[in-house]
């Protein structure tokens, strides 16, 4: 299975348009909003989440560009982990391809119904039911609801996916939104070839610097807590969905070094894996 990290930042990206914090005004390589592309055969591709940056992410990733026919695209569908805008607004951007197959938990699809109604005017979505060559399992991981949602439905509001390539046996766990280290997660990640974890915040008080709420209230387990879970454990761990307040964005920071020395990585946009 080929895996390409199209975007590795949290909502807003880095830099974020309305933020003048030191990281947003630094010369660091920009990061676009969290989105992943996967393919079993290198020909048909599926998106895990669909960021508002999807147009530029597709155009800067040769295997995702349109062709060979004039209106053919290698995109075969989209799976959503949740209904957050940074993970789903790209579905509005992809309206030109009417009938795009989409899979998400029912609660997430319900939350997105206002957006779906808009896309219906352009050809709508269909249901993604089959991913040839891949086996998908999902685990509900959080009750975090997007701010725009008023329903208090039971969920699941956020899931993690485990995707296994049936030919190679390689597997990816994608968990960009973790409020805690959830029940059942240890066995869900057991033996995975690559685990992408929620790396929104490094430490529990990070949003204070830009006048925000603490990030546990925002529903994101800090990296420090995840590192305690993975340190000394075999496996390939990486953090994505990095917020623009996160000091690990700076490759010379001690926080960045702490992540690497715990055996995890902080891959940049465009990083590719073969599992
Ligand atoms: C989140 O991950 O907490 C949300 O995407 C925040 C947001 O609304 O941008
Ligand atoms: Mn987000
Ligand atoms: Zn900032």
UniProtKB/TrEMBL annotation:
Keywords: PQQ biosynthesis, Transport
Domain Metallo-beta-lactamase span(s) in chain numbering: 45-227
Biological pathway: Cofactor biosynthesis; pyrroloquinoline quinone biosynthesis
Example GO biological process: pyrroloquinoline quinone biosynthetic process
InterPro entries according to UniProt: Metallo-B-lactamas (IPR001279), PQQ_synth_PqqB (IPR011842), RibonucZ/Hydroxyglut_hydro (IPR036866)
Gene3D superfamilies named among the record's database cross-references: Ribonuclease Z/Hydroxyacylglutathione hydrolase-like (3.60.15.10)
Role played: May be involved in the transport of PQQ or its precursor to the periplasm.
Protein family membership: Belongs to the PqqB family.
Name of the molecule in the record: Coenzyme PQQ synthesis protein B
Gene: pqqB
